[in-house]
Amino acid sequence: MSTLPTEATATRTWTNWAGNQQARMRRVAAPSSPQEVAETVRDAAARGMTVKPVGSGHSFTPVAVTDGVQIRMGNLARLRGADPATGLVTVEAGMGLWRLNELLAEQGRALRNMGDIQAQTVSGAIGTGTHGTGRDSASIAAQVAGLELVLADGSLVACSADEHPDLFEAARISLGAIGVITAVTFRTEPAFLLEAHEEPMRLAEVLERFEELRTRNEHFEFWWFPHTAMTTVKRNNRSEGPARPLSRRREWFEDEFLSNTFFAGVCRVGRAAPRAIPAINKMAAKVLSARTFVDRSDRVFTSPRTFKFVEMEYALPVEAAAPALREVERMIAHQNLKVNVPIEVRCAPADDLWLSTAHGRDTVYLAFHMFQGMDQTAYFEQAEQIMIAHDGRPHWGKLHNRDRDDFAADYPRFGDFLEVREKTDPDRVFANAYTRRVFGT
Q: What value does the CA radius of gyration of the chain take, rounded to a whole number of Å?
């Protein structure tokens, strides 16, 4: 009888956070140690089954879908160690980013940058290229100094820029196709405060001032409300303090009630009556007023996001920001589409990660959302064509229609990634339909 860590039969179905991806697995494992992960992988390979790890399910693509063995990472969520001298902090791969932030704060440390939600596990966030917005930094994977992972043969390997460097480069953003990450070592820095300044601004002004706003602020982004001329602009810059956080009452009202409960309510109205969406968006654009506060960095970077949606995001050369968004604006009007969730625009500096969407170029991200239960097909497909025309690269964890041939042309190190994959997983133990589409068979 097998002693492998297995969850009950009733848990052999899975749905992602957004509800747009489902899976039914032959087996579900919930390992509590790297050795149990390795045993699970060896057993699956011997039985001819594929393996996919899963964290919080925040990807919109079928990256975690499998009909073989699903490894749920929640029992691998411990702090391994923290070195005050170097700032290196090692945690197990199933730890939530929210928990990592709390642990770092207890030690007077912080990540340099983050995305705008912290519900993901650390391995899921880095594995799909999750990023924030920033003039000097954006990617979470770029802050990784080392990885521990289980390969397809069940071996447990540590890698870094100095130890198995090609494996390290391939595994940082890999969609789980190189191995099962069991621990992550982050480069951290002393904890810092951010001053957040948020205000409404007309879209025309934002686009006219885009380069100034992008280069003069450490972290700049904006949300444009389709069918309106208005945006909400967010500028976050380091502050010497003192901290001036929002009151608990105001934080609840603006970030939880208005941005989630109230917004979900108006989206449901728009879903039931699409013709009302332009008027609803005009109202929503007026609800959030200007505000300035100073708080711990991760509390400024991240916000609660409880209403459900699906998302597509593309990374473009930074100079394409204004023309691409204007084309999207015209497309929405000409096609009479009704879009009730704002388009998010963020920035990132060029990096050298093999499969980073910001590889080799300063980047602007355009993120398109559709409220849960509404058909996003026409909107996403037409927006995607505009993104492709501007040399866009899709986010690995968000909806898109691209395949291996596209990525081979988009990423200079794509061939190097495939070589590492061939060496470490020649039998495709970690493959699924999505990896076969984006990486080939």
A: 21
